[in-house]
Backbone:
């Protein structure tokens, strides 16, 4: 960088900042003005004369109220526009841009190249000159996509070409250029290295200044219905999708809002970790939830298997879990539901005062009286209508019963007044609303006046009708909510009938194994418990029977850590969000719940989409960890070769093996102290929750926080955390606890060990007791150092 360049760039920056400052002052004025005029308009309410004695007076009053409301709404909109602009400008005042590119249209090479500056948001002055371009504009894509020379980029009107003559990156602090470098690369290594050498934090940061070419493809993709991102641990999958959300919100501004974008994330801690990225980019947060939350919210009376239970209880059920999570089962559920059109619905009697009012046989008779061409949802709707009619017919029957007589006798004065005063409502209407409105009208003296009865009989009949209608109301509600279907029994019936709908032998499951599994599910259901896999089947079956169509307003759905989902769950999500485009991210090497069969997940899920609309992007370069940590951890895998480390040098991972657990504990204490002295934030990662709790007890004297539940917040200092909660997170230093033969020896623990090792950014220490883990013994000896402690 020459001094001349620096001087002229600083001059440009000063000019830009001058403009921004000016706009900032103007916007401040605007806010003040709109606040003032809002107050003026509001005080003008006093001038609105209410005239109600004549018809024209009423019309006049209504008109002026309306004008007044409109004036307030306009002022408010202007004020909030100005406030948003003010916030953007205030951010720009600090760091207005981070890059510059010069380019020419290849068709017009005789002309001077155009220079554009790229920042977090666009800025143009009164004359319409663009001083800064938002990083999401089509032209800014040039910055991320290639080096110097000819570059293609996509605009809303089609592909464009540019001949890039300069790429310059800046670091600006408080209005001064700190560094400036020109690069021929897409994004120079120097800038990236700088971005990556920072410390870990409890909040993920935005990466807009250093988005890589492959990541840019993910961010700007608008064509795919299913965008499948397979990427190594730390390759920036999560980072890329957070910027993708910001991009989509910008690209479809006005048509898409953040409430229409949903992300399924691995756990709550992760939600907490990423929740600053979008606000940092000037956008609102998207809706984030875990699959567990989604499923258990819909089944408040069932306790759905938690993340910890799922992680610790899957052993022993692999074959059956695999079948229950398969697309074959999804299809089988469809076939079973279809068969209910002929017979097999499990109904419940609608009981009233301890006895069946409408028996389950009657419910079934109604359900099956319709033509077999009916869809399940139509059949259900027709049944609901018919049952509501039967219920209304019951009013007359019940009115004659003794319990009604007794209820009339026992009416208090208040109850009597209430009944006699308010208007009547019909069963099956939205009674709560109607009744409330009627009472309000009554209180205002607007509703029907207190009745006068011609005879005692008339009074009795009136009261009896009221009492019966009220008493039957919960049943009407149950009918409208399809409470006459016994979904628990239906689900069990499906499980029992399953061998007719799927070949168990294809999954190497014997009939006896299946029968005993069904018995276990029945026992669980009695205790109101369901595994996550079963919950999904249960919900899908329920949705098919009741004809639910899912949430049609959701336009984009993101699923992170897709390797922990079953094909069935994914198919269910596709069914539940029928209008959404899917972006799914995963690393098959980090499958810690679904094990080997995660390998077919990609094809399974893709098979649900139009093949022309499926795109796969692979990210191989890792950014999180140092070269040494990446090279070590990829050797833990059988197929880790394709992973490329980013050239960032640091110390080798260390394997510390103690004679016994007490020695290992000492080693952890020592390492914790060393990391703290070096200012490295440490996570001690255990395999299970139990191990984390035990270790926390043993380290009670140390300054560490146990993260035992996903509902906690990430604490700023050192933490102890079980493996399944560490997913997606990162720490300066990681200590893997019990990294020995006793705890990490099975082939299926390879991925787990890989997942936890790749949480480390700068320092990785594995601590164990007894024998060296065979999984670590497989790693070439020059990739780590060994210490006997
Ligand atoms: N282009 C980039 N510029 C700067 N930092 C980046 C870039 N890409 C990724 N990173 C950083 O690398 C780290 C890992 O990224 P991220 O968490 O998105 O990876 P991931 O693929 O989701 O990992 P995992 O599968 O292990 O959860 C983060 O700190 C992220 O900010």
Residues:
């Amino acid at each position: 960088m020459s001094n001349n360049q620096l001087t002229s760039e600083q001059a440009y920056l000063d000019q830009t900042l001058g403009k921004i400052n000016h706009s900032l002052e103007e916007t401040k004025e605007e806010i003040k003005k709109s606040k003032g005029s809002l107050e003026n308009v509001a005080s003008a309410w006093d001038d609105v004369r209410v005239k109600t004695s004549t018809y024209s007076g009423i019309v006049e009053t209504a008109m002026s109220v309306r004008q007044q409301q409109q004036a307030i709404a306009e002022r408010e909109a202007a004020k909030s526009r100005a406030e948003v602009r003010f916030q953007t400008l205030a951010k720009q005042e600090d760091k207005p841009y981070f890059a510059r590119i010069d380019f020419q249209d290849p068709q017009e090479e005789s002309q001077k190249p155009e220079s554009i500056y790229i920042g977090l948001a666009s800025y143009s002055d009164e004359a319409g000159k663009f001083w800064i371009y938002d990083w999401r504009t089509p032209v800014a894509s040039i910055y991320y996509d290639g080096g110097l020379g000819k570059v293609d980029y996509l605009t809303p009107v089609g592909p464009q070409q540019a001949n890039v003559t300069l790429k310059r990156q800046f670091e600006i602090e408080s209005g001064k250029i700190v560094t400036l470098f020109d690069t021929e690369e897409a994004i120079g290594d120097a800038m990236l290295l700088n971005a990556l050498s920072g410390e870990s934090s409890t909040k993920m940061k935005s990466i807009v200044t250093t988005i890589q070419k492959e990541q840019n493809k993910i961010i700007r993709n608008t064509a795919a219905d299913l965008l499948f991102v397979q990427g190594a641990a730390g390759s920036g999958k999560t980072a890329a999708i957070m910027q993708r959300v910001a991009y989509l919100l910008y690209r479809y501004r006005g048509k898409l809002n953040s409430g229409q974008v949903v992300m399924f994330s691995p756990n709550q801690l992760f939600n907490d970790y990423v929740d600053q990225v979008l606000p940092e980019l000037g956008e609102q947060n998207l809706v984030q939830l875990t699959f567990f939350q989604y499923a258990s919210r819909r089944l408040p009376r069932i306790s759905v298997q938690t993340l910890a239970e799922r992680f610790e209880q899957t052993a022993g059920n692999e074959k059956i879990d695999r079948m229950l999570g398969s697309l074959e089962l999804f299809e089988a559920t469809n076939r079973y539901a279809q068969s209910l059109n002929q017979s097999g619905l499990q109904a419940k009697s609608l009981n009233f005062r301890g006895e069946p009012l409408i028996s389950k046989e009657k419910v079934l008779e109604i359900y099956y009286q319709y033509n077999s061409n009916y869809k399940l949802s139509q059949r259900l709707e027709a049944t609901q209508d018919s049952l509501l009619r039967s219920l209304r017919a019951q009013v007359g029957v019940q009115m004659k019963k003794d319990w009604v007589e007794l209820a009339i006798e026992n009416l208090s004065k208040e109850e009597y007044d209430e009944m006699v005063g308010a208007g009547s409502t019909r069963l099956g209407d939205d009674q709560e609303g109607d009744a409330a409105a009627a009472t309000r009208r009554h209180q205002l003296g607007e509703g029907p006046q207190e009745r006068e009865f011609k005879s005692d009989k008339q009074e009795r009949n009136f009261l009896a009708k009221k009492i019966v209608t009220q008493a039957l109301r919960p049943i009407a509600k149950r009918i409208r909510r399809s409470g006459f279907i016994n979904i628990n029994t239906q689900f069990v019936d499906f499980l029992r009938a399953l061998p007719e709908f799927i070949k168990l032998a294809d999954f190497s499951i014997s009939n006896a194994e299946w029968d005993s599994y069904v018995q276990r599910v029945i026992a669980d259901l009695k205790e109101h418990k369901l595994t996550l896999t079963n919950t999904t089947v249960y919900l899908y079956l329920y949705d098919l029977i009741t004809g639910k169509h899912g949430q049609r307003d959701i336009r984009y759905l993101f699923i992170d850590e897709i390797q922990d989902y079953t094909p069935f769950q994914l198919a269910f999500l596709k069914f539940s969000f029928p209008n959404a485009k899917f972006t799914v991210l995963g690393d098959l090497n980090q499958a810690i719940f679904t094990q080997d069969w995660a390998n077919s997940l990609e094809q399974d899920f893709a098979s649900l989409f139009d093949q022309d609309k499926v795109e796969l992007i692979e990210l191989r370069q890792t950014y999180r960890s140092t070269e040494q940590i990446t090279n070590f951890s990829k050797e833990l895998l059988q197929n880790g070769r394709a992973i490329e480390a980013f050239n960032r040098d640091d110390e080798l991972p260390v394997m510390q093996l103690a004679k016994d657990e007490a020695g290992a504990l000492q080693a952890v204490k020592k390492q914790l102290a060393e990391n703290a002295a070096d200012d490295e934030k440490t996570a001690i990662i255990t395999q299970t929750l139990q191990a984390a709790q035990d270790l926390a007890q043993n380290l009670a004297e140390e300054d560490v926080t146990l993260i035992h539940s996903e509902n906690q917040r990430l604490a700023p200092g050192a933490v102890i955390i079980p493996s399944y909660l560490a997913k997606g997170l990162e720490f300066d230093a990681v200590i893997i606890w019990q990294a020995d033969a006793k705890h990490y020896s099975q082939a299926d623990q390879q991925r787990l060990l890989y997942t936890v090792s790749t949480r480390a950014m700068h320092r990785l220490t594995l601590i164990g007791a007894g024998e060296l883990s065979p999984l670590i013994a497989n790693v070439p000896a020059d990739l780590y150092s060994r210490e006997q402690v």
Observations:
- The chain has four domains: 3-94, 97-199, 226-319+492-622, 641-788.
- The chain is about 45% helix and 15% strand.
- Residues 97-199 form one domain.
